[in-house]
Design brief:
Layout (H helix, E strand, L loop, with lengths): L6 E6 L7 H4 L8 E5 L9 H5 L6 E5 H9 L4 E10 L6 E4 L14 E4 L5 H14 L7 E4 L14 E3 L6 H7 L4 E3 L10 E3 L4 H12 L4 E8 H6 L1 H20 L10 H17 L23
Helix pairs in contact: 4-9
Amino acid sequence: MNATRRIPLHMLLDTYPSTAALKDGTVKSDLVELDFADVPRANNGFKRVVRDLEFDVAELAIITFLMAKARGKPLVLLPAVLIGRFQHPYIIYNAERGPLSPHDLNGKRIGLRSYSVTTATWVRGILQSDFGLDLSSVQWTTFEEPHVAEFVDPSNVRRAAQGKDLMQMLLDGEIDAAIVGGGTKGDPRIKTLFEDPAAEARAWHERNHAIQINHMLVAKESVLAAHPEAVREVFRLLEESRRVAAEKGGKAEPAFGLEANRRNLEIAIDYCVRQNLIARRLSVDELFDDTTRVLGA
């Protein structure tokens, strides 16, 4: 008798300690055959996720997903957090040009990769909610277009000239601060805007009872309609891969499951609404379908 053919899934997934066992084949499946996209970093493929619907299952930044979902893209969230971190260390300034604090940013110039990326949205939300920043007063300088093609940057966003470099602009005084995913970059002149980012993160957590999600997993509606069992199997494989990493002494990972992430998603949605990234306040439940909302419960 011939073996049952596994369901093929084209997947975008970066390699982290929590996903390594899945990516290297340590964790296997008799149900699905995963074809991992050859993309050096997952965020390099996010446009392809939301514009071309290229992947059956994909890692995706949560703000990009919310913006895509609000614009009718046929994607469904899985309650699987791949990256969650507090964003307070990721806004920086050049201390050689004088002190700068979170209270000093109204009217300033801030550089960032793209206006609607997830780290920048979290940072703006923190500054707006906790420090009274008027986002419309800032001159935002970006280097890339939005992942979601239908989104138009606000009028106070300008594109950096061809050949410009974000960190060099900060050092040269062309911008006053920058939001960078890699933090301070090891230059002694560059300091975090928050004097003690870890303390600020703890305070934010105590106020909001949440974490700041970066990346989660999504699936195409068509895949869920045709093969819900395959999507359930991908979730199981991720859980197993995380277990392997934990047994090797890996760090604690954000919890899986809808209810474990409901508050995290509520705040992400709120920040999106307040920053006009989405026109309507999505509910957490509509991000999922009948298959994905019970995963990890």
